[in-house]
Every structure is written in structure tokens, then in C-alpha cells.
Amino acid sequence: MKRSHSFIFKFLNFHIVAISVATVLTLSGCIEEYNADVPSDDSDLLVVEGTICSSKLNKFILSRTQPVNSYHTPEKVTGAKVSVLGSDGSEYVMEESNDCYLCWIDALAPNVEYRLHIESDGETYESVPQKPLRTEPIAEVNVLQDTPESDLDVLVTPDAPFDPDKVNYYSWTYVETWEVHPQYTTDIYFDLNTKTPVYDPHQFPERGWKDVTGSAIMVASSLNYEGQHIRQLKLYDISRSNERMYHKYSGLVQQRAITKAEYEYELARRQAGSEMGGLFTPLPSALPTNIHCLTSQKHVIGFVGCSINTAEYRFFLYPMDYSIEFPKQFDSRKWLDDCNEEDCCRMVEDEGMFLCEWNDERFMPDGTLRTAWAYKYQLDVRLNGAYIERPDFW
Pairing relation of β-strands 334-337 and 75-76? Predict the structure, then answer.
């Protein structure tokens, strides 16, 4: 018998994406096509991303699941009314900005329960009220390279738990920042009016920086650690051949204590994404959630945590401390030998290139003029996604 399981849902990076697969089972030579119907409750579901955090700018993203065979990115929900409500009557109203909802939340009271309130498309949604959790500081972040050919592993150790007699649950995110340099530098340019090289060391920035937020949330339980104290847990790795490690690197690790329910939600979300929608992968509506629709039976995807603080730890890495694989060096600039003024003007006007080297030996017997030229993207880090405002922590 042949059966076609024609739908799966993949929940990855906080989004539900519906895709189609076929699973073939052959039994007794009998072939039969079976197309399962996608439950209506699993289409156009509200997806909520974000955490209620104390003393910081809170950000929530609302989107909806896509139908089967859709190749579009999840549709963002706009025009919703979003706020955080406290059992003490406090209210923080969020403003919509760039497809997300933002508001600054002051220090949360440890004995007050907070919930997320959403009004969208005639429906009202709320998360389960919860008291904010305290988070231990991060004791240290270590970076290890097992062999000269290995990538670099980033390991985190939280401080001793507040309560060593119970299982503790945590989530971690991280932000990476690294320094980049241009492929080539130049302190001259060719002036079309005077038809001569002119000294200008500031026409291009000498370096820049790039930022990226880690694409995954790491969660862990202290269950199998002595004294319920997590130690040397790997968060992510850095390739030894990546540009992140060519000059200087900084990582900001953010740690948050979470409930067992949020921990289980993150594990289920990760399983749904990694298994590519196998036969036993939960459908979106089966994923655990603490958000409910108050006005109908509609399902909601997401889990809203609540934290009284977020622990942060910044660290720096330098290439000389590790075995880094740098790219092979070869000169990709364009060299002109025995060129004249017209050739130089053509390189600027027609080729759009910039002067890098001006080796003028015409005053010597049999001497010539040799010049080297590069394109702007080889000289300006901004064209490769970098910014040039030095970070405050650099």
C-alpha cells in the first residue's frame, strides 16, 4: 500500500512554514493514494514572538502561519493593539514600528503577575499571567579550540543557582560584532583635472564593523548537572576560516531564567523544525503555548516569558590567540604598465576604478610608470555590509 502524507509544518526561527512532502510505504503490492486534509485550525494561526522583560525596550512580533505550498514569508500582523498588563493595574501600551510592537517597560514588581494582551482582527488574546523570574549572573564565557584545525566553541557557565535544590531552566541568545578591513587601502586618487595623483588618506574608512544576532535560542536544564549548576555549556561555534576572526571579535551573551513550560515549548519548536515534519512531528496547534484566544477557539503559536532581569556577558577574541585560517592572498588589482595620462583617465571615467599605486620611474633610464587600480567595493567596507561608527564597547 502506498500512502501520501501530503502536509507537514516546519516551525523554525519563530515562524511556521507549511511545506509539502511525500512519504511512501509499500505493503503487499497494493497502491492507494491518500491525501490527508489540513485541519482548518492549523491555517492562518497567530504567531507571537517576544518576552516581557524588566527595565528595557520590549519587542513583540506578530505574524500568521502560511498555507500549504506557500512560498511567501510569514505575513506580519499590523494594526493590532498590544499591551502588557499587570495584576496591580499597571499597563504598558506598545507602539507599532517596522512590523513589530515596541514599548519601554520599567522595573517589574516581583510579586505582580504580568500578561500580554493582544487585540487583532476582532479577536482578543492573552498570555497566562506570571510573576517575573530572577536570572542569575553569567559567571564566565570560555572559548575553546580543541585542535588547530577545529572551529572555536563558545561555552557559558551561569553563576551558582539561586535555588540549588530544584531544577533550573535557562535560555540564551547572543549578538556578534566583529571588525572588518577593506581588501585594499589607498591614500591617493587620480585627479581628472590635473591628470596627476593627489594625496588623500581619508577618502575611504580604514575599517568597519558588522553585527548579527544569533539565529537560534539555546535552552538547557540543570537536571544532569551536579548541584543543579550548569557548567561549560556550548552555545555556538565560530568557524576558524570566517571573517569574524580575521581581526577582532566580540560576543554578547544574554541569559534568562525560564519556566519548565517555556523550556518544553522551545524543545518542541526545535523538534518541529529539525525533523522536517515527520509523521510524528506535532502540528502547530499541538505545540505547547501559554497564549490563548479569549473570544473564540482559535489556536495561537508562541510562548511569552516574563523576566525581572536579563544577565549579559561580553567577551572579546583576537586571532593571534587561536589557529585561524586566513584567506589566500593574491593581488586582484588591475595593473597598468607603461601607461599614460589618457590610460589613467580611462580607468577612472570608463572603468570606475580607483588608483591604489603610482610607481613612477620615468625619470630613470628605461623607467616606466606602473599603476594599480581597484574597484570601490574592494576599498570601502560599507559596500560589504559594514558600518563605520565605532561601537561604544570597542
Answer: unpaired
d(CA 303, CA 263): 10
pLDDT at 330 over 70: yes
DSSP 3-state assignment of 228?
A: helix
130, 213 contact by CB (below 8 A): no
Mapped onto helix, strand or coil, the DSSP state of residue 329 is coil
Query: Nearest to residue 68, comparing CAs of 22, 19, 21, 34?
Result: 19
| CB-based contact 289:301 (threshold 8 Å) | yes
Query: Is the predicted pLDDT of residue 233 greater than 90, yes or no?
Result: yes
Q: Secondary structure of 1-50 in the HEC alphabet? A: CCCECCCEEEEECCEEEEECCCCCCCECCECCCCECCCCHHHCCCEEEEC
- For residue 340 the three cell numbers come to 599614460
State which amino acid sits at residue 331: D
pTM of this prediction exceeds 0.70? yes
What residues have CB less than 8 Å from 242, skipping those under 6 apart? none
Instruction: Note the pLDDT tens digit of each residue in 282-305.
Output: 556 678 899 999 999 989 999 999
- Amino acid code (one letter) for 265: Y
Buried (b) or exposed (e) across 346-361, using 16+ Cβ within 10 A?
A: ebbeeeebbbbbeeee
pLDDT class of 71 with cuts at 50, 70, 90: low
Name beta bridge partners: 49: 61
Question: Strand order of the sheet with strand 369-374?
Answer: 334-337, 369-374, 354-360
Are the C-beta atoms of 181 and 386 separated by less than 8 Å? no
